[in-house]
Amino acid sequence: MATEAARIDLARKALDLYLQEHGDERRWRYPLAGSDVAECDIVDLLMDLLLLARASGHDPCTVLRKTQVHLDAETGQRC
């Protein structure tokens, strides 16, 4: 299994590619001080992934619940 750092790096690459495709469509983004990643960009990517899940026959709510379980199990972060 990949380390947390490797997974973060992969997620960063996915977000960067996603943002390149959207270019000027992004109207608002407010990264935290000292960060170049805006929460709204992550939310937009997650939303589009959930749309993909639905289009592929998966229930987006189930995908979110499973993601929460994985987050808790791997990081101890509860939502």
Overview of this protein structure:
The protein is mainly α. The chain has a domain at 38-78. The protein has helices at residues 4-22, 39-55, 60-75. Helix 2 (39-55) packs across helix 3 (60-75).
Summarize the structure.
This protein is mainly alpha-helical and 79 residues long.
Keywords:
66% helix; 0% strand; 79 residues; mainly alpha; globular; 3 helices
Give the arrangement of secondary structure elements.
Layout: H1 4-22, H2 39-55, H3 60-75
Helix percentage range: 55-70%
- Estimate the strand proportion: under 5%
Order of helices and strands: HHH
**What can be said about the biggest beta sheet?**
none
Count of beta strands: 0
Extract low-pLDDT stretches: none
Based on Cα principal axes, name the global outline.
globular
